[in-house]
Amino acid sequence: MEGVPMRRSSEPVTVTLECADGESVSFPCEPGQDIPTAATGVGCRPRVVCGGGGCGACRAVVVEGSVEHQGGVSQAKLEAPEPGHPGFVLMCRAHPLEDVVLRPVHRWMRRPVNRMSEALKTPASQTKTD
Ligand code: FES
Questions:
Q1: Quick check: CB of 78 below 6 Å from ligand 1?
Q2: pLDDT of 12 higher than 60
Q3: From ligand 1's centre to the CA of 119, what distance in Å?
């Protein structure tokens, strides 16, 4: 389709999230995968509230590379807050088109990978019941 960005590769691309204090995290993002879902693979949880492109909680600035939004997004949440600002992308609906570096507005959280599966491995004899 003419005019619609297309992912340039069927291979995973690398997404890097940078924090204002210099910390960063990188992870692979498979074709068709949104950024917050890909981030969970390394225990990173970007701030997502609505998950539907409406609230702006997942806003980020693109430092390098490009993304496309899939599904509707609030155009008001993409707008630059001041002249000279590049504007935002909404990570909950963003799919990287190539290796990309993003600077989220809100810091991500870290959680152990496979937290739920680890909890399910706990034998019943070790669970406390009152
Ligand atoms: S989480 Fe609400 S717009 Fe992305």
A1: no
A2: yes
A3: 28
